Amino acid sequence: MVAFGKKLKKLQVQEWESYYINYKLMKKKVKQYVRQIELSEHNREYVLKDFSRVLDNQIEKTVLFLLEQEGHLASRLSVLGEQHDALIQQDDGGMIPELQEAYRVVGRELLKLLYFVELNAIGLRKILKKFDKRFGYKFTNYYVKTRANHPYSQLKQVFKHVGISAVVGSLSRHLADLQDHQGTFISIYDQPALSLPDPVIESIKAAVDRLTNSTNFLQYIGKHALIPEEELPTPSDDDVDERYHFMSLLLNLVNTFLYMVNTYIIVPTADSYSLSLGAAATVCGAVIGSMAVAQVFSSVYFSAWSNKSYMKPLIFSSIVLLVGNTLYALAYDLNSIYILFVGRLFCGLGSARAVNRRYISDCVPPKLRMKASAGFVSASALGMACGPALAALLQTNFKIFKITFNEDTLPGWVMALAWLIYLLWLWVSFREPYRDEKLTTTRQQTNNGLETGALENVASQPLLTSSVEKQQDNDDGDQEFDNNEDDSDESHRPVTSIVSAYKLLTPSVKVQLFIYFMLKYAMEVLLAESSVITAYYFIWSSSNVAIFLASLGLTVLPVNVLVGSYLSNMFEERQVLLASEIMVCIGIVFSFHVIIPYSVPQYVCSALLTFVAAEVLEGVNLSLLSRVMSSRLSRGTYNGGLLSTEAGTLARVVADGAITLAGYCGMSKLLNVTLLPSLLICITSIVATCFTYNSLY
User: Fold this and answer.
1) What does the longest C-alpha to C-alpha distance in the chain come to?
2) Which of 230, 254, 327, 501 has its CA 20 to 30 A from that of 372?
3) Contact by Cβ (8 Å): 11, 456
4) Do 548 and 598 form a contact (C-beta atoms < 8 A)?
5) Which part of the chain is the SPX domain (predicted)?
């Protein structure tokens, strides 16, 4: 594994070498500080002051050079603009290609400057992270907080690159204006977007998007899956293309969809099913939650199994789900609540979402991985909406050979049939990709390299290759500082136990996982007890509950469109995170039964507010989690996706158990008793977010 310091040196533009942050110097400083602290604790204040000074000087050097280069580019664009105006006045079409090429040259220079900023931003993040790790001190919080909005701070220039947008806008406008088909419009601002923009502009836009963390709906929703997006090209990319099989990917997405349908199809009728078997209506919480209990364990063994195969765990999952749903349906005629629980436990043991994630991560080419990730999340959302909607259609009652088919048992029979069809389709169409240890190792190393920037992206190679080839690697002495640190080969290997994974969780990651726990708890309480609450207060039928839950589920994708396409470009993700937590808290408060009588508008509006805010929160939470989590948790059995799944599943288990226990307090107190823990957990998460707010960048 090549150390980051060496990668930084190789990717530098040779003539700009002295203007990059001196990563090697700062690493040496960190090591010196460690020795000083070991000698005397009184040196701690000196260390903080000195390291702050070093960082300020390095950032100032970089920013002043950035401003100087922006000025040069602006001057060149000004000259080209005059030539452009003269060309228009003379109506000389023969000069257009020459002028276009001149603008493209400026564009390539701008692209080099963008990569310069990105390299420095990544280096700054890594050295701050290294300092915190070595000293156990939240220096990053202090440094960012004191300099983020200070009028004399240069830090925001690195992360927000003020001024570059104006250069990009000018360059884009002039290049577009020179296109042959522009003449039919009064100006560039009056025409629709170009269908085929200049490749240079596309490369610049991609670089700017990475720097600003700008996003669109596809990227935003794809992050929900917590599937690592590999941006650094490797020799193995062609091998990944060979492993890719569209039908196999489709089968994984269908598996995700069916499992979510299976999870929520019983929610509208779980209370009536429990009553028909002689149990209390609130036992529905335990019935629904038993699936989540089993999923806590199944996620681990499916994640481990996916290291060796994809098809076998999917076949096993389908068979277990087929058996589980059959038992769930037969529990009615067997008049056994225990069979009902066993059936749902089997369904939980068949959760293969870890395999679905892993297949997308390992076998889908990088250029398609974001789309596949978005498909994974969309399939989950669609299944969540279709489950209750399908339950609303199963309002019938008949018998065949003494087997009862009614609104309680039909969800089990329908899902058993669906999994049988899926199993046959899987057996016929799935193609097991070949296993290549070299490929796996390369992908793990690549994924754990630079953090967010695709600095070795194909688009950048024409700009950086020549300088990289000329650059001499004088960083040999830097290797001694890489030992036992997160740049070493050892530190980039996937973790091998849940204990090791936990040790890698920083306070920011722990808070994000706690937020995920909170939002899943709040959503599970809302959904799982909906049939009981609405039957008690409003005398709703199962079909009414199903329509209500389906309506909630259908808000998922529109909300993600709104957040992914608009809000995430207008506000920082941490701002959206905190605002969403507050909205969830408000929704929970409005859900309490403090006014007699409890009205339908109050329940529906508060439920909608809680659910929508939780959906927004889930998106930004997982997006931030993918950025603040250690790179070692991006691969292997105990990966970030597994940890988030376990946190969410545990929340569902606790919520469903709370519903069942709250039933002993009586139906009149059920709502408030289950909402109180949600409120306390939500308030705690808001406080925790405030404490780690400055580390979420």
Assistant:
1) 91
2) 501
3) yes
4) no
5) 2-145
Strand runs labelled E in 378-473: 397-400, 403-406
Tokens of 648: 């969410």
A 10 A CB-CB count for 550 gives 20
Give the pLDDT confidence of 97-146 residue by residue, as tens digits: 888 888 888 888 888 888 888 888 888 888 887 887 777 666 777 777 77
595 contact partners, CB below 8 Å, separation of at least 6: 602
- CA torsion, ordered 413, 418, 424, 430, to nearest 10 deg: -150
Alpha-carbon distance of 257 to 235, in angstroms, equals 34
State the DSSP H helix or E strand holding residue 538, giving kind and residue range, or none if neither. Answer: none
455 in Cβ contact with 118 (< 8 Å): yes
* DSSP conformation class of 495: P
* Residue 665 DSSP code: G
Q: Which two tokens stand for residue 654?
A: 């606790």
Rounded distance between C-alpha atoms, residue 54 and residue 241, angstroms: 45
Structural contact between residues 610 and 591, judged by C-beta atoms closer than 8 angstroms:
yes
pLDDT per position as a tens digit, 599-630: 999 999 999 999 999 988 887 887 788 777 77
Q: Tell me the CA distances in angstroms from 476 to 24, 345, 364, 407, 504, one per residue in order.
A: 11, 56, 36, 71, 28
- Is 525 a residue whose pLDDT tops 60? yes
Q: What is the pLDDT of residues 449-508, one digit of tens each?
A: 333 333 333 333 333 333 333 333 344 344 444 444 444 444 556 677 777 777 778 888
Helix-, strand-, coil-residue percentages of the chain, each rounded to 5: 75, 0, 20
Sole residue written with tokens 């808000």: 555
pLDDT over 60 (residue 418)? yes
Environment class of residue 473 by beta-carbon count within 10 Å: exposed (0-12), middle (13-18) or buried (19+)?
exposed
Q: Does the predicted model carry a pTM greater than 0.70?
A: no
Give the dihedral sign, CA 55/58/61/62.
negative
- For residue 231, CA distances in Å to 369, 445, 463, 628, 639 come to 10, 12, 17, 17, 18
> Rounded to whole angstroms, what are the CA distances from 244 to 240, 358, 360?
6, 13, 9
Give dist(CA 393, CA 407) in Å, integer.
9
Here the tokens at position 299 are 């996620």
Q: DSSP label at 455? A: T
- Residues paired with 399 in a beta bridge: 404
The burial of 171, by beta-carbon neighbours within 10 Å (0-12 exposed, 13-18 middle, 19 or more buried), is given as: buried
Q: Count other Cβ atoms within 10 Å, centred on residue 183.
A: 8
Using CA atoms, how far residue 102 sits from 73, 423, 650, in Å, is 12, 59, 59
Helix boundaries (H) for 538-639: 542-553, 556-562, 568-570, 573-591, 600-628
For residue 222, give the nearest of 378, 380, 374 by alpha carbon.
374
Mean pLDDT throughout 312-318?
A: 95
pLDDT greater at residue 220 or residue 94: 94
User: Which two structure tokens, joined as six digits, stand for 295?
Assistant: 């999923």
Say how many C-beta atoms besides its own lie within 10 A of residue 470's C-beta. 10
